[in-house]
Specification:
By secondary structure, the protein is an alpha/beta fold. The protein has one domain: Spore Coat Polysaccharide Biosynthesis Protein SpsA, Chain A. The protein is about 45% helix and about 20% strand. It contains 12 helices and 8 strands. Strands 3, 4, 5, 6, 7 and 8 form a 6-stranded mixed beta sheet that branches. Strands 1-2 form a two-stranded parallel ribbon. Helix 1 runs parallel beside helix 2 and helix 10 crosses helix 12.
């Protein structure tokens, strides 16, 4: 978390209130300067099963990796400071990982609040679907082994997409995902949210370029399937197919296909 004092107590309360009790809470303060935030963090150090770590401000990928490195659990559940959990989140997700050693991540539906509203019915978890868009929320329960296999969160993604990159890398390595079709986490968007700024055209293009460059081989192999997946998902994410060629991701994919065909002809 970073300077999120207004919401931090709610996030911490929701973690402490989990009906599944075998947990630890690792708080990473990513260089907060806000007085209210720093006071709440100091109070958090007195909470049960909670440790607090303070780092210079280096962005969410570094903060998540740092927290996981200092955690002891075999399962990881990231939680941003302005989001919160339903009390039964872990009770309803942990058993799925326990029951299936080959399952890498369990995700749930997401309640949208703040600058957006409704329910995000997340999924699926295949390479073509994840090439088209980020299909699950950052607050999804996954095996620590998945994080290690992928190599952690990539620090080049600062404004956003570090979770998308992780999920895509995991799916490409054969990890499977499963959904609990129930709203068990709430995702708040505010004017200060990273996602609010990452949706500006310049940042969106830069992030998508970085993602496509890193995973170029996957796009080369699965481009047609990714486009088909995007088409199938159009109503769910409001891509407005009648104006599809104006969508930055579609323009990027079509340009990539032209370049690949040109390279192949050469």
């Amino acid at each position: 978390m970073y300077d999120a004092g207004r919401y931090l107590s709610e996030a911490l309360d929701s973690a402490v209130a989990q009906t599944f009790a075998d947990t630890e809470i690792v708080v990473v303060d990513d260089g907060s300067t806000d007085a209210e935030t720093r006071t709440i963090i100091a109070e958090a150090e007195r909470r049960p099963r909670t440790t607090v770590h303070r780092t210079p401000n280096r962005g969410p990928s570094h903060a998540r990796n740092f927290g996981i490195e200092h955690a002891r659990g075999a399962y990881i559940l990231p939680l941003d400071a302005d989001d919160w959990l339903e009390p039964t989140y872990l009770e309803k997700t942990v058993p799925l990982l326990d029951a299936d050693p080959d399952l890498g991540v369990v995700f749930t539906w997401v309640g949208l609040t703040g600058g957006h509203y409704g329910v995000w019915r997340t999924g699926g978890f295949s390479v073509p679907e994840l090439l088209a868009r980020c299909t699950i929320h950052v607050t999804s329960l996954y095996r620590r082994a998945l994080w290690a296999d992928v190599g952690g969160y990539d620090p080049r993604f600062v404004e956003s997409c570090e979770d998308w990159d992780l999920w895509l890398g995991a799916a490409a390595r054969g990890w499977r995902g499963a959904c609990v079709p129930e709203v068990l986490v709430h995702y708040r968007r505010t004017p200060r949210s990273r996602e609010h700024h990452s949706r500006t055209p310049a940042i969106s293009r830069r992030l998508m370029h970085a993602l496509a460059t890193k995973h170029r081989a996957l796009y080369e192999t699965h481009l047609e399937d990714a486009l088909a997946s995007m088409y199938e998902q159009r109503s769910e994410v409001n891509l407005m197919l009648e104006r599809m060629y104006g969508h930055p991701l579609v323009r990027l994919l079509l340009r990539a296909r032209r370049l690949l065909r040109r390279d192949g002809a050469a």
